[in-house]
Specification:
Helix 3 (79-89) packs across helix 10 (220-255), helix 10 (220-255) runs parallel beside helix 16 (370-395) and helix 12 packs antiparallel against helix 13. The chain is 84% helix and 0% strand. It folds into two domains: 12-218; 233-495, no CATH class. The longest helix has 51 residues, at 2-52. By secondary structure, it is mainly α.
């Protein structure tokens, strides 16, 4: 009888894994549409604004937005991820979660509101930037009303995509209608307030379509418990921001502004290359969290699949980007930034390590081990600073990039080695083939460096892609998954 029970559980786990992987692909497609659609509309908005409010006004808006983004980080305090996990693992509690999470986020945002107003008075910005910041600060409570985490927990990312594109389109339309001269600068943050309000209204409507309603119900016991779980995530995110700033400060202190420019250019270019990776994790995380609550064995299987995909994609980005680093840097930033090429190549490999290790970070959230992420981030940060202090004097921006790589390696080791073998080192095994193929592809590409600027990246990409297919790392199963993701959701999918 026990044998039959184990067999039933195995079959159920396999079915859950298949459904989860299909949902991940479908969710990723929805998020991808939302990201590209909103970015395209955002680009049009920014291009129009830059011409209408002049460089000074555009800079004032940029400075104010940078301050508000930091306040928004603390306003959320990692609660969004905790809410996604709780909702994915306990769908019956989502309505209660909406009230508790919304109430807590509102409380934090109202506490931060005077911080934004005080910052507007004392930061060493122009009066225009301060005036814009005061209005942007008022939008913090509206951001607290965002319910996109509910759509993520329910794995209905298309609702989040609808809201994202609607807000971007509304912003463009209102900007075209009401911002025409530099004198209209202060209209920009007020339009942002209106579009945030419109986005909240649409999200609440879609929330009703999903069977829920917006509510505020602040419970001190629940709030304290959620904060205890979310603050390590908030601290880890803030620490990552500080790592980059610390590296810039060390490079600037030792070598001056020029080398800071090289490191900044390399860092930003590498970040763009891995933008889709983090979008993938937004799609994958709810599926992993839901699966972990039902079957840890099935969650470990999904983890291995995710490691295979992120390793295959990350190693490919790293080796092709490194092979084309000179060409990319010259095209994007100009010949004056050619010295940033080595740092850019190293940061690409750093991004690959970060992408692979992030699978275990998501597993830690699913298993209520948020402090593990903070411990790993702290360990990586210390390693990064030590290496930077040793190498920056001699290698400048390249030394800072090596510090990043070392830090990500330490983070990966702490995250992976903190799990039993089944969910730790064994789950890392699917990354071995992409890593070996990446080394082979780099070696093959280096043999044709004298054939022209495109020869190296083309040969590298061809060898790596052929290796993925020949070793079965990427194959027919991925095409079947893609086809399933593109199919119309069934009634069962919708219920899930």
């Amino acid at each position: 009888m026990s044998h039959l029970t184990e067999t039933a559980k195995a079959v159920e786990g396999t079915g859950s894994l298949r459904s989860s992987t299909t949902n991940v692909a479908r969710n990723f497609g929805s998020l991808l549409l939302g990201r590209f659609g909103s970015q395209a509309l955002g680009f049009l908005t920014n291009a129009y604004l830059a011409r209408r409010i002049a460089p000074g006004g555009f800079g004032a808006v940029g400075l104010a937005q940078s301050v508000i983004s930091c306040l928004a980080l603390f306003s959320d305090a990692g609660l969004g991820l905790i809410a996604v996990r709780e909702g994915a693992q306990n769908p019956s509690r989502i309505q209660d979660l909406i009230g508790s999470i919304t109430g807590l986020r509102l409380l934090i945002s109202f506490a931060l509101l005077p911080v934004g107003l005080i910052a507007a008075a004392f930061l060493p910005f122009s009066e225009s930037s301060r005036a814009v910041l005061r209005v942007f600060a008022i939008t913090l409570p509206l951001q607290a009303l965002a319910v996109d985490w509910v759509f993520r927990a329910l794995q209905r990312m298309y609702y989040a995509t609808i809201v994202q594109i609607f807000v971007a389109l509304l912003t463009l339309v209102l900007t075209l209608a009401f911002v025409r001269t530099p004198h209209h600068l202060l209209r920009v943050p007020w339009l942002s307030f209106l579009t945030s309000l419109g986005g909240c209204g649409l999200a609440v409507y879609l929330l009703g379509k999903a069977g829920y309603k917006l509510s505020v119900n602040l419970r001190l016991g629940d709030s304290w418990r959620y904060l205890q779980q979310s603050l390590p995530l908030c601290a880890a995110t803030f620490a990552l921001v500080l790592y980059y700033q610390a590296n810039c400060m060390i490079v600037g202190k030792v070598h001056g502004d020029t080398e800071v420019g090289m490191y900044t250019a390399a860092y930003r270019a590498a970040t763009v290359f891995f933008g889709l990776t983090w979008l993938y994790f937004t799609a994958m995380a709810p599926a992993l969290m839901e699966l972990y609550a039902r079957s840890q064995a099935a969650a470990a299987a999904l983890l291995r699949e995710s490691v295979r995909l992120t390793a295959a994609a990350g190693c490919g980005v790293a080796v092709v980007g490194a092979a084309a680093s000179g060409l990319i840097v010259n095209i994007v930033f100009g010949a004056a930034f050619s010295a940033a090429r080595p740092a850019f190549a190293v940061l690409l490999f750093s991004g690959t390590l970060a992408a692979i290790a992030h699978n275990w970070a998501q597993l830690a959230i699913a298993a209520h081990r948020e402090k593990l992420i903070m411990r790993a981030t702290l360990s990586g940060g210390i390693a990064n600073l030590i290496v930077c202090c040793i190498l920056i004097g001699r290698f400048a921006s390249l030394g800072a990039a090596i510090g990043n790589l070392t830090g990500e390696l330490v983070v990966a080791c702490v995250l992976i080695l903190s799990w039993p073998a089944e969910s730790g080192l064994r789950a890392l095994k699917p990354a071995a083939a992409p890593a070996a193929l990446a080394a082979l592809a780099l070696l093959a590409g280096s043999q044709v460096t004298g054939w022209g600027s495109l020869a190296n990246p083309c040969v590298t990409a061809a060898v790596y892609a052929a290796g993925l297919v020949m070793t079965g790392t990427v194959g027919a199963r991925d095409l079947r998954l893609l086809r399933a993701a593109l199919q119309k959701p069934t009634a069962t999918d919708t219920c899930q």
